[in-house]
Design brief:
Blueprint (H helix, E strand, L loop, with lengths): L13 H24 L6 H8 L3 H4 L6 H25 L9 H15 L1 H8 L13 H17 L5 H5 L8 H8 L11 H22 L10 H18 L4 H8 L2
Amino acid sequence: MPVDDSSAPAPRSLRERRRTTAVREILAAAEQQIDQQGPAALSLRAVARGLGMTVQALYHYFPNRDALVTALIVKEYEDLADAVQAALDGAPDPADLPRLVVAAEGYRRWAVTHPERFQLLFGTPLRGYAAPAEGDTTRAVRRMATLFHRELFHGFSRDRLAAADASALSAGLLAHLGDLPPVGPGELPPAAIALFLGAWGRLHGMVVLEVFGHTSFVGDHQAEVFRVTMRGMLADIHRRIPADGAAADAAGP
């Protein structure tokens, strides 16, 4: 009996395959330039020269520097998220570490291995560049956020997260957090968003300090300091989330 493949996607044309290959090579050349000279030195002319192309030929794939920067940022966010996911996938079961700590260490390893690419994402903004609103970069950031808040709050019901201790926050801030779109951190109750932001600040801040050389005095113990800090952060946050019964009492009748 013949197989009905009418719903199968049509094979890509030779032109499409060549374009995909060219884009991949351009991004790799741009990454190499960033690795060698830092994000601020990125230029279409230098990338084209490194590939033996003219700038005019490169414009067929990226019409300007901003388009190339946007594609690079998306790629680096995806690579970083892939590294975090790979760390989680490779964790033993049962895990020796909480999965949030495993994810955080995957994030740190990528950052210290690729410091210039990390700076492209989180360092000084490139002069004159603004990421497109609600574009591919936003979706890439949301994927990263989802990975972390999933592991940070794994096992907690929405009622427990909603009843988390947010007594230090103003009513105005809680209302603002409650109005966020229901994607990324906005999937969480306001109190949990506040906890997530605090966790993100501590995690990311430790990595930034290391990548930019501010914790070099710790020497070879930076990974241990990071792990201890992440364990402590996780314990602090989980202490602020009530038990099931307490959450029900907080919710009221």
